[in-house]
């Protein structure tokens, strides 16, 4: 959701910085800085999204039937069954 927002903001501020002159307010320096910050945030959001997707795929790929002795997903203490396994 935030990737398009930060990518669009990066492009918007970069184009604005390229079109502004030295006497304009705000000048090209602050606009370039804002474009760079938005670009870094967009990159951070993309990396975060990739990590989350990889973790979700790994969990679903390794999820086994609860009777096969597969991995155990721990639940909060108030919700966990006595044997600690998630019922499927």
Description:
With 88 residues, the protein is mainly alpha-helical. It has one domain (1-88). The protein is 60% helix and 0% strand. The chain has two helices and no strands. It has helices spanning 2-19, 28-62. α1 runs antiparallel to α2. The protein is rod-shaped, with a radius of gyration of 23 Å.
Secondary structure elements and pairings:
Elements: H1 2-19, H2 28-62
Helix pairs in contact: 1-2
Radius of gyration: 23 Å
Identify low-pLDDT runs: none
Share in β-strands: under 5%
Number of helices: 2
Q: How would you classify the helix and strand content by structural class?
A: mainly alpha
Number of domains: 1
Q: How widely separated are the two ends?
A: 31 Å
SSE pattern: HH
Oligomerization state: single chain
Quick one: how many beta strands?
Answer: 0
Morphology call: rod-shaped
**Residue share in helix:** 55-70%
Mean pLDDT, rounded to whole units? 81
What summary fits the major beta sheet? none
Features:
single chain; 88 residues; mainly alpha; 60% helix; 0% strand
Offer a quick outline of the entry.
The chain has two helices and no strands. With 88 residues, it is mostly helical. The relative contact order is 0.11.
């Amino acid at each position: 959701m935030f990737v398009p927002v930060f990518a669009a903001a990066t492009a918007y501020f970069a184009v604005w910085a390229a079109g502004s002159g030295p006497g304009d307010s705000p000048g090209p320096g602050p606009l370039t800085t804002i474009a760079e910050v938005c670009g870094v945030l967009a990159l951070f959001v993309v990396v975060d999204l990739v990590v989350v997707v990889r973790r979700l795929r790994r969990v679903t790929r390794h999820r086994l039937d609860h009777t096969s002795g597969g991995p155990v997903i721990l639940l909060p203490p108030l919700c966990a069954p006595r044997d600690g396994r998630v019922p499927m």
